[in-house]
Amino acid sequence: MDTASLEKLNHFRLARVPVALVTDIQSGISIVVSDKTSVHGDLGEAIAAALHSGKSGNVTIEDITYFINVYLPRPRILIIGAVHISQALLPMAKLAGFDVTIIDPRTAFATAERFANADLIADWPEDVLQIRPLDPHTALVALTHDPKIDDFPLTEALRSRCFYVGALGSRKSHQARLQRLQDQGIDEAQLALIHGPIGLNIGAASPAEIAVSILAEIISTMRSGARVRSLSSG
């Protein structure tokens, strides 16, 4: 790989943009193509399909064989709320291969003592997400029960097409949440994407069990193809 291609790949990786390195097998010439790049014809369709599926492989077009090497952003979980469930979910999610960030403006909760070695931000989500925006490779988990903290990142997650959006709360509190978000202009189709009550129904009771149910639902959503589909929707 030449230096220019490597620099482009690193640029897109840092920006969390899906990208492919497309190499002409015979000549060895490579180009870097992001999901925003327009490549016409059958090759363009093959690249789009590879970015959609996340799978690398060979493709032959007009007697020329290309290898399409796909690089998708590492999946991450953004947790809103430095609560007991978050303390259990953090190490589990890391073991499962996710990058994890926790945001909570309540400095009594968001402490290094409670979340050692965590990417922990004690600030309002509105401010953090301006600097670290959401994307389709992110799962958003809202756990504070406080509309002043949870509602903004939930709406941003829907607008950013996060592959998973979940919120803690009873069915009654979830219905109230949906009404608030609808009043803010979120349509019913988008609201239906929110997992609430959050997590798979495994009868979870303790914070650790609830964390297991949340992580299982995130992984199920990602592996079912919902994450990939979200990249091409809208």
Strand and helix layout:
Layout (H helix, E strand, L loop, with lengths): L2 H12 L4 E6 L5 E5 L6 H13 L3 E5 L2 E8 L4 E5 L3 H12 L3 E5 L15 E3 L3 H7 L6 E5 L4 H13 L4 E4 L3 H13 L4 H4 L2 E2 L11 H17 L2 H7 L2
Protein name: XdhC/CoxF family protein
Organism: Agrobacterium bohemicum
InterPro entries: MoCofactor_Util/Proc, XdhC_Rossmann_dom
Short description:
With 234 residues, the chain is α/β, with parallel strands linked by helices. It has helices at residues 3-14, 41-53, 84-95, 125-131, 147-159, 171-183, 188-191, 207-223, 226-232, and strands at 19-24, 30-34, 57-61, 64-71, 76-80, 99-103, 119-121, 138-142, 164-167, 194-195.
- Kindly provide the radius of gyration, computed on alpha-carbon positions and rounded to a whole number of angstroms: 20 Å
Helix content: 40-55%
The assigned CATH architecture of the largest domain is 3-Layer(aba) Sandwich
Q: What general form does the structure show?
A: elongated
Unreliable sequence segments: 226-234
In this structure, how is the largest beta sheet organized?
6 strands, parallel
Helix and strand composition category: alpha/beta
InterPro entries: MoCofactor_Util/Proc, XdhC_Rossmann_dom
Pfam family, one: XdhC_C
Domain XdhC Rossmann: 78-218
Protein name: XdhC/CoxF family protein
Describe the model.
It is a single chain. With 234 residues, this protein is of the alpha/beta class. The protein has 2 domains: 3-71, no CATH class; 76-228, Rossmann fold (3-Layer(aba) Sandwich). It has 9 helices and 10 strands. A 6-stranded parallel sheet has the order 7-6-5-8-9-10, sandwiched between helices. The chain is elongated, with a radius of gyration of 20 Å. The two termini are 34 Å apart. 32% of the residues are buried. Mean pLDDT is 91; it is low at 226-234.
